[in-house]
Amino acid sequence: MERYDEDLGENSFFQVLRREYVDVLERAVLSGWVICVPRTGALPKYALAKDDIFGHILVPSDELPETHFRTLTDRNVVLNGNVLVLENKVSNPHSVHILFEETFYDDDLRKYKVMCLEDPLYASNAFAPSSCTDLIILHSLRDCIDLLWTEGGGGKALEKLDFLVNQFLLRHQALEEEGLQNLRDLGSELFSEAIQVTLSEPRLGEKTKKDQYLLDAVKLAVETYVLHGVYKPLMKGIAACKAEDDARLNRVIKNLSDLQVRDLDIDPQLLCNLTKAKSELASIEGHTTPLGKLGCLKRAISLVAVPGTIFSSDELLPTLLFLVVKANLANWYAHVAFLKLFRFSASSSDSGEQSFNISSLEAAIEHLYSGSLFGSTTPEADSVLQPGCMTTPVLKSMEEALGCSGVDPMARFFECIRLGKVEDVKDILDGKYKPFQKEIESEPSLVEADAQLCHPLCSCDRCEKLMSKPKKDIMPTVHTREERGYTGLHVACIFGRPAIVDMLITLGADLHATDFRGATPLHYAAQRGHQNAVLLLLHAGADINKCDGDSNTPLHLCSLNGHVACVKALLFYAESIGCDIAINAQNNVLDTPLHLASRWGYSAIMELLLDRIVILGLELNVYNNRKLTALDCAHNRHIARLILDAKVRKDELESYVRIDLNFKVPTDAPHEKKLDFNKHTENSKVHKNINCRDDTNRLKHIEKLLKSVKVGDVKLACFYLGIEEKTTHSDAVSPKTLCHPLCQCSKCAPNIHLNQESSETFNTMSINACNSDGYSALHEAVINDHLHLANVLLSHGADPNLQTFNRRLTPLHIAAQNCNLETMQSLLVHGAQVNLQDICGNTALHNCCAKGFDQGVMLLLEWKATKDVSNLSDNTPAQEAEKRGHWHIVEIIFGKPVSY
Amino acid sequence: MCAAAAAAGAGGTRSYNFKIVLLGEGCVGKTSLVLRYVEDKFNDRHITTLQASFLTKRINLSGKRVNLAIWDTAGQERFHALGPIYYRESHGAVLVYDITDEDSFQKVKNWVRELRRMLGNDICLVIAGNKIDMEKERHVSLEEAEAYAQEVGAFHFQTSAKQNKGVEELFIELTRRMLDNAVTNDQQRINSLTRGGNTRNLQIIDDQANLPSQKSSCCSA
Fold it and tell me: Matching InterPro entries, A to Z (chain A) (predicted)?
């Protein structure tokens, strides 16, 4: 029910007219008269007089047939928009709203026009009581409550609906975890129950049977009221279902933050109201019902349309696109899904204006999501937007701003950088750029331009022209800035030209040059997702924590724009180099990068940031200037879950570290004692390891390493240790054999890896580093049965004879305990001592015997394990086996059948 | 509620709600065409704010109440992929080309192909050759266009939004055909129906049967 509707065939006024005034109708058809019909609810009660009818027949005037009429009772009527104004001689003019127009055709396609009016235009008996009821129009939740109150027996219906809503919320407490279809089914069930309850009110039930319009209104009111009641959990559920789509859309939107109207070819005439329309559209988030949200959408659209122009779909769609980008909302998909699926009062085949508006919004969002926005408008965008390479698209407006057409050396310089023409840029900087030289040669007069002025201050046309020509002897350098304060390095970072970034850095470009916004090249590289450029700048020594004019660090910018690769680059670089990256840095609205990633739903970035926050023991509950934590900013439960999990992990780790720290002082002392216990241990090694434990930072790093080993992440572990994954060393190719410094072709890629590792001074951990309990990476790998990882560690010199501090376990003990034959073999091959004892005096052989692991026993015996070592309980391996009834083991040890 | 109708109050006649989608390249005069029909205006200086992307028109054809919701689409080529969002569940489509622009006629052919593929014969098509006031610059011959329309089971109209030629006829004819479609659909539903669902898919299959009759009606038009 968007607009008033009634069947005029049922309207008694129209019936009388058609029955008794056939001749008038005939004239109306022939002369184009317009017939007005008051709506059924507003008809006078008395029998209609001739004047009543004639007062509603409009005869178009000769001069302005579209807007000026005379009634058959000779009164002037003016049409103004959708209002008819009846001019009175004495009193004020009487205006009446037109509800709708209907064109009637007969079988011969002859037609006449009928306007249905909200109130009668003229009543012959003005004092007669009329049956007039106010026309119900629902605009807001308030209107709906009013309707339900007045029609539903003074609050009874509302009470029943409240009860239903509460019951529903109680029954479905896990609403946020339902699927979309389920949510819709539940909502629709609630809606039908609510309608039933409302119509069970006898008076309303009777009334709606007769009045289709009222029934529609009641349906809408009930839908609005009920959905308002369940909105919060419902919307959370929808947001969770649409989380992925929304995150992807947010990435696109955030990366289009520079979008300008001319990028979309929007008529500049429409500009004036865009800001208002934008805030109107943004308020869609605050409305809790389809009615309210649709109202927003409609108002936003009508705000854009400027009086005096025709606002067609050709303009509507780009404008909506623009508004969606600018409205700063985090879950468009969820809102559209809500509007599409939860308008229960609208018929399934609804094709009215609301439905059109929703479709237009959906179309705008789909277009953004598809990323095809700049596919055709800028040819260069194709090369930048390669599949898989998610960087910020280049907007037309930006290209234009960077002066494309230039004979001016400055413009040419920046254009060459933008287009990635390495050679040309180099030539320009060296002063060898051919086009410039040619121009100079062809116009030799220019060189001595000054001399040729009529007089030093002359401003005649010829001299003006000479003066305005750029001086060719001013050649751009790496420090040259264009009008927004960009240096060449800025531009190269904006457009992602790593080769040029590399060259400019070597030529001594200023890494910390700031543009007018206070942003450094690193800010732009991070913001626009150019990982290569980010790494190049970092390696060259760019400040990772530098703030721009809005106090955003590079980490803020890539978190905001959803560039996972750049977040990774920043975090891992900071970690490997050991510099402090301000993960919880706050910008000028006190948002941390975590706030931004949480608000826009980038789960991958969330994981990276949280991981680092947990490990470094940073604060999770940072408040921004609206007193919100990152958790409060989360728009769906997936993101919220990540933060909550991180909290748990952090608490666990903190309690763990605290115990460790308390424990640290005493552990050193008893250790020395324990060494006496094991005569064969190489003391020096243990000492070295103990020394490693000194600072807590180091401990945390080790925890991270062990964690990566625990989950079997070979790559990460190798990264932490600064080693290669390969178990055997391949011939290291010298870095110089790369095709070019940044080549990533299949031939060069592995070499780059090497190259990086050799060139970076990785502050990596010793491969035998162990945590506070003395567990090394090798221990962890063996415990968790990661054979490949264990082999990698061993081939890089991990010591297979390290013993843990408390239980004095070697990896071999653990492997024996776990019955890992292959691991045991590896360990032994790499020099594991076969007879080391743990704190209970057990050797690996003891363990195998106790487990009844016959293959292990045989393997150990092959490696000359001593059979007669007694543990602290005074048992030899054979005795252990015997105790547990592993007779076959006993046989193996003694090499002959045993009699019992 | 079924595809095309909502029964008005007790004993009232049925009223039909039809969705018409307007397709065609930019600049062929889609918007002008629909504005001429609904508001009887053409680039009028008197136009106050006009939201022309969505317009409604109520007509009463020999006692049948019909509510037309006319959805304009963006004509720019880069928005082509968004077509389905607009044309899904529509009962009729007006495909507009500019008789002075051969390319725009090719675009119409593309749309016809796409609509037939996505919506089958469930949708009534009307092809409009607009701008016949510029007959001198005609690049699409009438014979070719009419032959094509007949081949794909669509009407063909020559229109001029500027001179108000053929516009009303076009929409009336389209409405008639959508009415025929709806009536036969209702008939078939009543014949085959035991439960009241609104599965459009079923109807598509059913419609194959009365395709020939539709074709003949279009040829006579």
Answer: Ankyrin_rpt (IPR002110), Ankyrin_rpt-contain_sf (IPR036770), UPF0507/Ank_repeat_27 (IPR051248), VPS9 (IPR003123), VPS9_dom_sf (IPR037191)
The residue type at B46: H
Asked if A379 is an interface residue toward chain B (Cβ–Cβ < 8 A), one would say no
Instruction: Answer yes or no: do A92 and A17 share one domain.
Output: yes
Interface predicted TM-score of the whole assembly (ipTM), two decimals: 0.82
Q: Say whether both A28 and A163 belong to one domain.
A: no
Q: Per the domain annotation, does A204 fall within a domain?
A: yes
A379 assigned to some structural domain: no
pLDDT tens by residue, B61-75: 888 899 999 999 988
Q: Determine the Cα–Cα distance for residues B107 and B140; give it in Å rounded to an integer.
A: 13
In a domain, A743, yes or no: yes
- Does the distance separating the beta carbons of A314 and B31 come in below 8 Å? yes
> Which positions in chain B touch A349 (Cβ < 8 Å)?
1-4, 17, 19, 89, 198
Q: Are residues A571 and A489 in the same domain?
A: yes
Domain of residue A84 covers: 8-117
Q: Residue B156 — very low, low, confident or very high, per pLDDT cuts 50/70/90?
A: very high
pLDDT in tens, A334-375: 999 999 989 888 876 677 888 999 999 999 999 988 877 654
Query: Which one is predicted more confidently, A573 or B221?
Result: A573
CATH code (residue A612): 1.25.40.20
**Closest alpha carbon within chain B to A354:** B54
**Please, which residues 91-110 of chain A have a Cβ atom closer than 8 Å to chain B?**
100-107, 109
Q: Could you give the number of structural domains in chain A? A: 5
Rounded Cα distance, A608 and A642, in Å: 11
Q: Which helix (H) or strand (E) holds A78?
A: strand A76-80
- Please indicate, yes or no, whether residues A224 and A335 belong to a single structural domain of this protein: no
Q: How far is CA A175 from the centre of its chain?
A: 23
A675 found inside a domain? yes
DSSP letters, chain B, are --SSEEE-STTPPEEEEEEEEEE--TTS-HHHHHHHHHH--SS-TT--SEETTEEEEEEEETTEEEEEEEEE----GGGGGGHHHHHTT-SEEEEEEETT-HHHHHHHHHHHHHHHHHHGGGSEEEEEEE-GGGGGG--S-HHHHHHHHHHHT-EEEE-BTTTTBSHHHHHHHHHHHHHHHHHHHHHHHHHH-SS----HHHHHHHHGGGHHHHHHHHHH-
CB contact under 8 A, B85 and A366: yes
Q: Domain boundary residue among A642, A677, A695?
A: A642
Of A9, A308, A313, nearest to B74 by CB-CB distance is A313
Residue of B85, B176, B179, B189 for testing the chain A interface, max A β-carbons within 10 Å: B85
- Over the range A552-582, which residues count as b (16 or more CB within 10 Å of their CB) and which as e? bbbbbbbbbbbbbbbbbbbbbbbbbeeeebb
Q: Any chain A CB within 8 A of the CB of B199?
A: no
Domains of chain B with CATH codes = 5-220 (3.40.50.300)
Tell whether A564 and A671 lie within a shared domain. Answer: no
Q: Is A846 found in the same domain as A706?
A: yes
Q: Which candidate in B78, B176, B185 is best for mutational testing of the A interface (most A CBs within 10 A)?
A: B78
Which residue is associated with the tokens 């900071």? A574
Q: Count interface pairs A-B at CB distance under 8 A.
A: 155
Alpha-carbon torsion angle A720, A726, A732, A735, nearest 10: -50
User: CA A125, CA A44: separation in Å to the nearest integer?
Assistant: 9
> Residue A615 belongs to what H/E stretch?
helix A603-616
Among A241, A258, A278, where does a domain finish?
A241
- Which of B40, B51, B74 lies at the smallest CB-CB distance from A305? B51
Position A406 pLDDT exceeds 60: no
Shared-domain flag, residues A476 and A604: yes
Residues 6+ apart with CB under 8 A from A276: A303
